[in-house]
Design brief:
The strands form 2 sheets. Strands 1-4-5-6-7 form a 5-stranded antiparallel sheet, with no helix packed on it. The chain has a 3-stranded antiparallel sheet with strand order 3-2-8, with no helix packed on it. It has one domain. About 5% of the residues lie in helices and about 40% in strands. InterPro entries: DUF6510.
Length: about 90
């Protein structure tokens, strides 16, 4: 697999705004596990490419696509096929 130029992407914090429209929590603090290499880390550490119609997030360990986010006028699409799990921290209720 050819490694992509590191200057083409931004970090996973670019997903904060689009994902805030879908989730009631800050998903960039969630721990994502890559289905390709098994690497676990915060969503904020993903490599996000903004040059597609939407956002494409890749694993910093193996470059596999782990997440896609596309926003339309009144609909959002979230593809997590490359994510084995997404551990989302919740505020305690007590």
């Amino acid at each position: 697999m050819t490694r992509l130029n590191t200057e083409q992407y931004v970090d996973g914090n670019a997903l904060a705004g689009p994902l805030a429209e879908v989730f009631a929590v800050d998903v960039t603090a969630a721990v994502e596990r890559c289905i390709g290499c098994g690497r676990a880390g915060p969503v904020a550490a993903l490599r996000v490419y903004q040059h597609a119609p939407g956002l494409v997030a890749r694993c910093p360990g193996c470059d596999a696509v782990v997440m896609r986010v596309v926003r339309g006028p009144d609909t959002a699409w979230l593809d997590l096929k490359g994510t084995m799990s997404l551990q989302i921290p919740l505020a305690s209720s007590g």
